[in-house]
Each structure stands twice: as structure tokens, then as C-alpha cells.
Amino acid sequence: MGISIDRPAATAAPPELRMGADSQVMLSGGVSYKYDPTQIRDNQSPALLNMLANDNGSILSKRDGQAYVYSSSLGVGGINGAYGRLWAGQRIFAWGTALYRQSGSGTPVQIMSGLTNAPGSFLAFGGKLYYLNGNQFVVIDGSFAAVLVTPFVPTLTISVPPSGGGTPYQQANLLTPAFKVSFSSDGSATKYYLPVTGLDVTAVTLTINGTPKTEGTHFSVNRTASPYAYIDFSGGSSPNGAIATSAPNNVIVTAYKTNPGAGRRIVGCRYAIEYGGDNDTRVFLWGNEDSPNRVYRSGLMDPTYWPENEYSDIGSSSESVVACAKHYDKLVYLKERSLYFTSYSDPVTQGFWGASQIGATFPLYPINSSIGCDMPGSVQIIDNNIVFFNSTMGGFIITSTALKDERNVMPISGNINGAPTRPGLLNLLQSDLQAASSADFNGQYWLSVGNMTFVWDYRLSPYINSGDVSADEERLSWFPLSNIDAACWIQEGSNLYYGSRTDGCLVGFQANQNDFGQPIDAYWRTKRFSFGLPDWLKTVKKVWFTSKAGGYSTVNIRYISERGEKVDEEEVNVNSFRWDLAAWDTWTWSVNEYPPPERLRPRTKKVVYFQLEFTNNALNENLSLMSLIIQYLIVKKVK
Fold this sequence. Notes:
By secondary structure, the protein is mainly β. Helices cover 3% and strands 39% of the residues. It is elongated.
């Protein structure tokens, strides 16, 4: 006869909220200041600083530390600009009144002095590097020789008879008063008429059949004759009279006539971009305070040639062109309160402009009349789309340039803009916002404002236009970082550097946990969870969290509920030795390949809401989270 033993029914395991690795909710949602902490997404944080998502979003870790590239500063005052890549294997940047090159961690070497101490920008084009700062226009070659640009001297007319006329060939160059006229001698005339009068006193030069001739010896010049100045061969020597008939265009005259303020139109610009439709065949300049809505175009493949009539006025002069960016085969003009674009129109082969200007046109079209950009340094191309920011409206992405279709400019920064009780990006000083810088690095968009930087990880959360504007914006992962005052950025392979806003030095990131020898303050706070039961009381029994293997660390933990806060401290010794992270104060040879979970006992009873905050501000210590499990009991309905 069998014996029956009654066993108690198995008790169901307490419910758990699982986040991070091996769960459906990753820890890579970034920060959200947009909503109350109870209303944000489960993977987002209402309070986050100096943490980035790594390993495809499976691990949150304290950001890399910082160190000066060269130990000594050039002096007080920030870096005025830097080329965003290496040039001839070295970094090129501007500080004070000079340009510098730097290799590795070596001493910066001055390559040019005497510049105006003002912010500027660099552009590589045609195998040379150009620099503009609103006062000077500089060219740097591959051997680091830096000089002011030598302007191209255009030939205004060709096949000109001595009496004047001829065929228009090239426009005057705004950068120089010099111009050429190509005459064809007729065997009888001694006076050759130029197309202008009122020449400069600079000596006129010319060649006859390739032989140079000198003013005052071989010819004279009447600079002020009306209606046109002329060259007179009647009193000189060789030829001392009429020039014999020869091949066409055998008399080439170079003369000078200053157009007041013409050069300033170009050297007064601060920004440049290359564009030409499907090919980058011209340089476009803007940012001249004297003509804030005007964009200038260079000659074909020649940034030393700025034809006097090659420009576009973009909308009203009351609103500046702040930035330009290429979107496929279009060029977008970003003004303070509106957006336009242009495209390259095939040249009309009519022979009027000659070989260097053959009639290419750049018609103008509106995109958006209510959204603009007043943060020129914020503009980047992210996943083939233009990203830009406005100091009062936040960030946007242009996903299309369909004519007059305003639905193509989408918001992207709602999670970091801030709210009245949750300060964020738009609560920072407007002057700092308008002086922002940005970089597209390793699948992340970095926006630096003052000493704060906001990183959008578009690998983990690419912008996708689903038709739900709010949801598309809310799921983007933004990570705020502090103590990064980047005036400009330089990328060197897998390394990122920046020029300081306040000091004459470049700064690099390194795989440790200190900023210039000081601790990095980092924290991450969970959503204020009701566990889907806002009308029930819960008791949080246990919490497990797992840190990434990497070394000794002390984690300060806060348990937050509507009943108050409790503070805990946990020593996390997840050792995995690395020489580049080693520090004597946390020295260990131990290796732990599989990081163990740490168990916590919050003893938070009968609460509706529960939050955890993890912090670390210790020198050379990491703060990392791979997974988080919160075990709780449902107690009773709220009365």
C-alpha cells in the first residue's frame, strides 16, 4: 500500500523587471528630460551624466578620460579653429594670431603668424588646405607652407582690336585689382584701348608675341583718359610705333583697377564648402557680416578666382546665411529662420563666359519658412541627412528637399531640450548655444555647448520617419557629458580630439577614468517605475546588477520612492587586468572573465514608485552596468 505525502503547492516566483543584457529592455535609451520620470520609456533615464552605451548598446559605461595632447598650453584663449582630419599626417589648427601644425604629442610648430585673432574654418580643396577667419584668406600646401592666397588674374576680353571691344572672356576677380586684356595687333594702330578708365598707379605690364615690355621704356599709359584708358606705343622704343600684324591675341596687357571693398567681400567670409552638383567643382563662401545673406561662388576648380557676378542672395538680408550643407546633389542654405536649397544647372554652351565660366547656374528654391539654424557649428551630415540645431527650438534633421514640403524637417532633440522643472540643452546660455561645435564620430553625433556635450548614438537609434513625429523623436538615444569644452574637433582614425574653448591646447580622449588627473563624476538613474501597477503598493525585495569586467570600483546606490531615499554603497571588484587602465591606487593582477552579479537588499516596503540611482566619482574607477534585475512583491491595492 502506497504512502501519500501532501506537499504544499509551489510558490510562484516574485515578479521581476529585467533590463540590460539577456533581456528585452536594453540600457541604451539615453536620457529624457521631456517627461516626468514616471512617463519616460523603460530604457531611458531622467538623470544621466558621463555614461555612454557600448558593445552595441548592451553595456553602459563611464566615458573615456581626457588628457592634453601636449603638456603645455600655448597660452590663454581658446583654439580658433582646426581642420577636422589630418593634413599631410599632422593636425592643423589656429590659435591667437597664428597657424600651427602638430604631430603626435609633440610641440605645436607655428607655420604662419600675423593673422587676426578670430574664429575661423578650414577647407581642403584641390590638394591644398584653405583657412578663412573673416579677415585673411590663407592657403597651406602639403609641406605646410602657409601664405595668403595669390589671386588668379582673369582675362576680361580676348581678340580685342586696338580700338577696343573684343569678346568677353572672364569676369573680374574680387580678390585682386589686376586684370588682363588680350589684343590682336593690326599693323597700324599705336594706341590700344582698355575696357575701363581710372587705372591704379601700379605699373602696367604687357607682352608682345611673348616678349615682356616695360612701362615708361617701351610704352606709356594714359590711366584717366575718357571714356577708356589706353596704352600708347607712339613714344616708346621697341616697337616705337605700330605693332606688326601677327597671330591673334599677340599683345597681352596686365593692368590694375581697384574696386573699393571688392576684396573684403571674399576675405570677410568665415565659412566655406565645396559644391558643384554631382561633383565638387567650386568653392562656396559665406559668413560676411557686410552681406549676411550672400553666398559667393569661386571659379571652376579655382578657389583663388572669385568672379564679381558669381553670387546668390539667399532671401532677405535681414536674416543671415548661417551654414551650408550638401544633401545628395543639392546644396542646402541654412538661414537663421528659414531653409533654402540650390542645385547645379547644366551650363549653356554659348561661348560668352569662356572656358572657366561657361554659364553654369544655381537656381534657388525654398524648403521651410519657419525653421532655421543659428548654431553654425551644429551642422553635420548624419546617415546622408542634414542635422542642425536652433538655440530656441532645438535640433532637426532634413530628410528630404522636396520643393515647399515642410514636413521634411523633423525634430530630433526633444529628449534633451529640457522642461521648466528639468533643465536641459535649451536652458544653457544662448551665446554658448550659438557658439556650439559638433562632430560625426564613430556612429555618434557629438554636440558641444559651453562645457557640456550631448551625444546622439545614431548606430543604436537611427532616425526613422515612421509618420509619428513625436515617437520618432522620443526613441533617439542622447547621452549628456560634462567637462568637455570643445571649440572644434579633429578625427584621427579611431581617435577623437578637440580644441579647447578657453585654453591654447588640444585635448584627446584615452581609455581611463580621469580627466586631466581628476575624477569623472558619472551617474545613471532608472525610470520611476510603477511596474505597470500605479494603483498597487509594492515591496522591492532584491536587486541584482552586473558590472562589466574592468577593475575595482565603488558604486554608490540610492533607492528612491515616494517615501524618501535610502543610500547604499557597494564595492564592485570585477577584475580584468589591462595595462592602459592600470593605476597604483587600485592595483590588482586578478582576472575575472565572467562578471558576477551583485545582490542588493533595498528593503523598500509598500511603495507605488521605485527608482535606483548608480553613481561613481572616484579617481580611476569605472561605472558600468550590464544588467539590472528588480524583484518585487505586489502587496495590496492603494486605498
